[in-house]
TrEMBL record:
PROSITE patterns: SAM_MT_TRMB (PS51625). It holds the Pfam family Methyltransf_4. It comes from the Bacteria. Belongs to the class I-like SAM-binding methyltransferase superfamily. TrmB family. GO terms for molecular function: tRNA (guanine(46)-N7)-methyltransferase activity. InterPro entries: SAM-dependent_MTases_sf (IPR029063), tRNA_(Gua-N-7)_MeTrfase_Trmb (IPR003358), tRNA_methyltr_TrmB_bact (IPR055361). One of its GO terms (cellular component) is tRNA methyltransferase complex. This is tRNA (guanine-N(7)-)-methyltransferase.
Amino acid sequence: MSDNKPADGANKALFYDPTEHRIRSFVTRAGRLSIAQGRAIETLGPKFCIPYQKETLELSAPFGRTAPTILEIGFGMGETTAKIAGGMPDKNFIGVEVHTPGVGSLLKLIDENGLQNLRLIQHDAFEVLTHMIAPASLAGVHVFFPDPWHKARHNKRRLIQGPLVALLASRIAPGGYLHCATDWEEYAQQMLEVLSAEPALRNTADGYAPRPDYRPVTKFENRGLRLGHGVWDLVFSKR
């Protein structure tokens, strides 16, 4: 488990619904929204949150500049997202998450770190990709530590499935990339199979990729590595 996920007691808010061939959002309980998170949403949300809309978003508009844009699906509490954005000031980042405490947490980090290159959308990722993101407009996509749905009967709910990968590939510009990471080996194997089957993508490694320097190792990941648990990164480029 990584700290790029929601806090303990909150369910990961994205899963794949095979009956509709799309991502679904759900929250079995709202989770605890701290006073600081609520204040961040109230005071910082108007500037740093992009409202969902059923029309194409001009990616430069929320940032006031044109720069390569990277979209992240499911940023959890946002610590990793903030570190990556802080380390790449020349790029724009859009994080998509439905978990309200996570949105508040990342807004706090944006303020504390003075990040001007990060914006958030609190909405279902499939609808954001379908309606707001133009084809071939993204420089990259990050999907870090999605829920592994480790019980066999729930595997079909995993986020990384063929239809979503095809949609992601259509939104990435030629030469752009899709970076997934998981700490669940069986899910890593499925990811590798699904991503390799997408004709618009090419694996940048022979199987799993070394962890790119821009993805920080979280405290939970470090703890797992010390216990002998694995972490698998997959980095595919758009043909």
